[in-house]
Amino acid sequence: TQLLEQSPQFLSIQEGENLTVYCNSSSVFSSLQWYRQEPGEGPVLLVTVVTGGEVKKLKRLTFQFGDARKDSSLHITAAQTGDTGLYLCAGRLQGAQKLVFGQGTRLTINP
Amino acid sequence: NAGVTQTPKFRILKIGQSMTLQCTQDMNHNYMYWYRQDPGMGLKLIYYSVGAGITDKGEVPNGYNVSRSTTEDFPLRLELAAPSQTSVYFCASSYAGQSTYEQYFGPGTRLTVT
Fold it and tell me: Which of A45, A58, A1 is closest to A24 using CA atoms?
């Protein structure tokens, strides 16, 4: 079983549309991160959220950490073809020295 | 800075062969990690290290070994390669002073075992 469940696993939309990706768990995390991975490359960190209810914005991307620190969402406004990639959420459990990764959401933005 | 570097980029092994995947970081990070990523999937932790001389198992350690003799290097050894080890392997590092353990990844090694 996956400690962090991402949904949807696959998403294909048209350029200009909005979308939301979810990362859910029954466990409480000290912090949660979102990474983007492009084909043939390693994941690259987008953002870290640490406080329940925290919202961070990165241009057209909005990240939110749930109030109970068990879930997170990534919202993209007016998606562009350059947003295409695999989006991974990763959380750190209290006291852990490593991250737990979700299975990823593969996003395709069509022109 | 080069960040995290991995060699080789690609490798084909026959069943039963052995090899070492190299990983080096130049950011003076204490923590280093090895993950595997199967097609269409997320990352599974193989082994990690919190400093030179200290290593620990992750979720999927069977069939692999690691060592950490220096801060910079964290090689992953595959003994008796099996088709189930066909995957993309990523090395990552993070700074112990950050409580969030944000990770920096290398470009990966694509391994095929036939």
Answer: A1
| Residue from the list A40, A50, A102 with its beta carbon closest to the beta carbon of B100 | A50
**Boundaries of domain holding B88:** 4-113
CA distance A105 to chain B (A): 9
What residues does A54 pair with on adjacent strands? none
Q: Which residues of A touch B90 (CB under 8 A)?
A: 42-43
Q: Mind listing the pLDDT tens digit for each residue in B55-67?
A: 999 999 999 999 9
Residue B46 sits in a domain whose CATH number is 2.60.40.10
Q: What 3-state DSSP class applies to B51? A: strand
Tokens of A43: 């994941």
Assigned token pair, A103: 């299975």
Single-letter amino acid code for the residue at B89: Y
Tens-place pLDDT, residues A65-84? 999 999 999 999 999 999 99
| B102 Cβ contact partners less than 8 Å away, ≥ 6 residues apart | A33, A45, A48, B94, B95
> CB-based contact (8 Å) between A38 and chain B?
no
Tally of domains in chain B: 1
